[in-house]
Amino acid sequence: xxxxxxxxxxxxxxxxxxxxxxxxxxxxxxxxxxxxxxxxxxxxxxxxxxxxxxxxxxxxxxxxxxxxxxxxxxxxxxxxxxxxxxxxxxxxxxxxxxxxxxxxxxxxxxxxxxxxxxxxxxxxxxxxxxxxxxxxxxxxxxxxxxxxxxxxxxxxxxxxxxxxxxxxxxxxxxxxxxxxxxxxxxxxxxxxxxxxxxxxxxx
Length: 203
Known about the structure:
Strand content: 25-35%
CATH topology: Jelly Rolls
Largest sheet: 9 strands, antiparallel
Helix content: 10-25%
Shape: globular
CATH class: Mainly Beta
Order of helices and strands: EEHEHHEHEEEEEEEH
Structural class: alpha+beta
CATH superfamily: Jelly Rolls
CATH architecture: Sandwich
């Protein structure tokens, strides 16, 4: 289930600053909006310049399907996105709980950063948490299978794949070198829930 939570960031003048006694991964104020309705999520994100779509499943792909099989299954959607956005490079990334670099990768993705190009992803399997720092707001979006998101270049954000990652996603790039980040040095991610914390109430 896709989920969007919108917070007022404490750095804004009408909200308190982060209490040093508040535990890492928790926010001093509750979210102003929480929604699992795909149309509402799309409306809220579109109002902030973020594109979000739900792509219908093209085929029933077996668990662990090869990148080639995934790219073939979604060839029509990939061609459409490439034509609209001019993304010459597309690949499929899969992370599982036994990935040898999962801890290092999680730590890297959790640091707030930006990209010089759009961050465009389509989730084929599993889930991941995008956190977008937009002025005096922070949006946390859990993307699951069939979710497509396009975050504009220069957007401050971070990503959590959880302590035991399990997802596969298509990635669209302008840059042939793939994922290149510019880290802001802001520790803002410590003030917001992680993926497993957001999922806990639904369990």
